[in-house]
Design goal:
The protein contains eleven helices and five strands, in the order ααααβαβααβαββααα. The chain is α+β, with helices and mostly antiparallel strands and 264 residues long. α4 crosses α6 and α10 packs across α11.
C-alpha cells in the first residue's frame, strides 16, 4: 500500500507536488515493484528514494558516517593524512613533539581502543603526550628534528608494525614512565616498551627504564646544595658524581679555586 501511494504521487506530504503530475503507467509501477521486492527486502528509505526518482523530486544524498582517521578518505576532514599536505602537517606536529621531549619511547599500538588510549593520556603528566604515528612519518619527523644518520639507523628497527609513541619533557620523565606502567597494569595489557630516544641516543627497553631513575633538575640542584653545605668542594664533587658528571675535572677546578682564595 505504501509503495502504491508513493508511486501514484499521493498520500505523503513530501509528494504533494507530484499529485498534479500524471500517475505512472501500470507497466512503470510494475517495474518499480519488481525492483523493490525482487531479492532482498527493501527498506522504507529505498521505497522513498525510488518514488522520488520516478516523480522527479530532488533526492537528498546519504550522509557520510564513520570517518576514518589516519589515512582515511581524502575528502573527509580527519582523513586528510593520506594527502601530501596532511602528511606534511603530521610530520611537522611530530617534529614539535620530538623537540619538546627529552625522552620518547614506543610501545606496540596494535589493537588499542581509542578509549584505552584516552585513559593513558589522562594518566600522563600534563606536558607529556601519547600518539600513534605511522612509521614512515616518524622516520621523516626524526630526520627533520635533527636526528643524525646514526641515530636514525638505530631507531629504524623500532619502526615496524604499529607504534604508539610517548613523549616526555625532562621534569616529567619519571612520572611519564610510571603513568605508562600503571596504565598497562590497570588494563592488563602486554604492551612492553620497545625502545626509545634520550639525549640524542637510542635506548633499548632497559635503557628507557634506567632513564626514569635519573634525578630531575630540582632534585639535582638539591643534591648539589646539600653536598656543598656538607663538605665544601668535596661535597660538590660528590654531588656531581652522583649526577653522572665528571668529578675529576670539577674537583680539580674547585680545588684550584680554593687554593687561589687561600693564597690571597
Amino acid at each position: 500500500m505504501l509503495l502504491r501511494r508513493l508511486l501514484c504521487g499521493a498520500g505523503a506530504p513530501v509528494f504533494a507536488a507530484a499529485r498534479s503530475r500524471p500517475p505512472l503507467s501500470r507497466a512503470a509501477r510494475a517495474r518499480a515493484a519488481r525492483f523493490l521486492y525482487a531479492g532482498p527486502r527493501r527498506s522504507a528509505a529505498a521505497v522513498v528514494a525510488v518514488a522520488r526518482a520516478w516523480h522527479g523530486a530532488p533526492s537528498a544524498g546519504v550522509p557520510r558516517t564513520g570517518t576514518v582517521m589516519h589515512g582515511g578518505r581524502k575528502a573527509t576532514p580527519l582523513g586528510r593524512q593520506s594527502t601530501r599536505a596532511g602528511k606534511e602537517a603530521t610530520v611537522a606536529s611530530v617534529v614539535a613533539d620530538i623537540e619538546a621531549a627529552d625522552l620518547l619511547f614506543s610501545i606496540d599500538g596494535a589493537g588499542l581502543d581509542i578509549k584505552v588510549i584516552d585513559d593513558l593520556r589522562r594518566e600522563l603528566p600534563e606536558a607529556a603526550k601519547a600518539r600513534i604515528v605511522k612509521n614512515t612519518l616518524m622516520d621523516r619527523a626524526g630526520a627533520a628534528a635533527g636526528w643524525d644518520a646514526a641515530l636514525g639507523d638505530a631507531v629504524r628497527p623500532l619502526l615496524k608494525k604499529s607504534n604508539m609513541w610517548i613523549f616526555a619533557p625532562q621534569d616529567d620523565m619519571k612520572g611519564t614512565v610510571k603513568a605508562y606502567e600503571s596504565w598497562k597494569k590497570t588494563h592488563g595489557l602486554e604492551k612492553a616498551i620497545k625502545g626509545g630516544v634520550f639525549d640524542g641516543e637510542a635506548l633499548d627497553a632497559a635503557g628507557v627504564k634506567r632513564v626514569k631513575d635519573l634525578p630531575t633538575l630540582p632534585e639535582l640542584m638539591a643534591r648539589l646544595g646539600r653536598g656543598i653545605n656538607a663538605a665544601g668542594a668535596l661535597g660538590l664533587a660528590r654531588g656531581i658524581k652522583n649526577a653522572k658528571g665528571n668529578p675529576r675535572q670539577i674537583a680539580v677546578a674547585v680545588s684550584k679555586i680554593e687554593g687561589d682564595k687561600l693564597a690571597q
